[in-house]
Amino acid sequence: MTDDFKAGIVGLGQMGFPVACRLLEQGVSLVAYDLNQEALHRIEGKGAVAAENPADVARQCDIIITVLPNGPHVESVAEGEHGILASGNKNLLWLEMSTIDPDVTKRVSTQCEEIGIRMIDTAIGGLTVDAEVGKLLFMVGGSDKDFDHASSFITHLGRCVHCGPTGSGVTMKLINNQLAGVTLVATIEALLMGRKAGLRFADMQQIFSGTAANNAHLHRAVPERIIKRDFDNGFSMNLMVKDAGLALDLAERLKAPQSLGSLVQRLRQIALERDWGDKDTTIIAKVLEELADSDLAFEE
User: Fold this and answer.
1) What domains can be seen in the chain, in order of their start residue?
2) What is the pTM of this model?
């Protein structure tokens, strides 16, 4: 990839905006589009060039990134007279970073292949703070050739793992999120049990960290979010419910049991009933605290 290549991004939401900012900080020439004009003006202020529509972005770029809420949004920016497919840019490599149904990914990829555009799913692992410092993990699905082409560009944003053919990246993301969500709930339940038994968090964290019970939530979500009662911003419960729903749908198609995943999803629904959908996904701790008649507001 030459130094004078140009990248584009469609979708400047919760994750798309910090991804765009990181690329600009890395000296990447960036063209951007979003329906939200405020977000578009913000990224213009940081050095990006605003485009009129997705096709306009695609015509100007060597690589285009999409970071969108769901499958229908991806299809909408792909198709139609102003869609990416209408750009006619056969040199384009499309990195589709949205968390969507893998069947949508495969369907859009087939449409791209038919007209000569290369598309690979490049699912994002990590939080917005990771995007800001270039420490995201990307789960990539696509051909060996396209992965090799994309991997040097992705180093601007973090590291990447080639998970297999198109659709494998977002499939890995859904399964990873499912496991992480179940692990979070199991961790909270264990800590609540210890809390009611009179144990201190520092002691439980130290012991768990030295056994098979160790997990990232013990070191990040629990001390930084749950104990401090900081449930604002972050990865919203609404998005977690959406992602977990996609994982459960995929599991049903694969006939793969998800008994724990289904149970945790029902607990998330309680959080939505409490109007906590815009809160960070760690707000599920409050649901479990209600059930336990205790809390994790440990003293320092």
Assistant:
1) 6-166 (3.40.50.720), 171-292 (1.10.1040.10)
2) 0.93
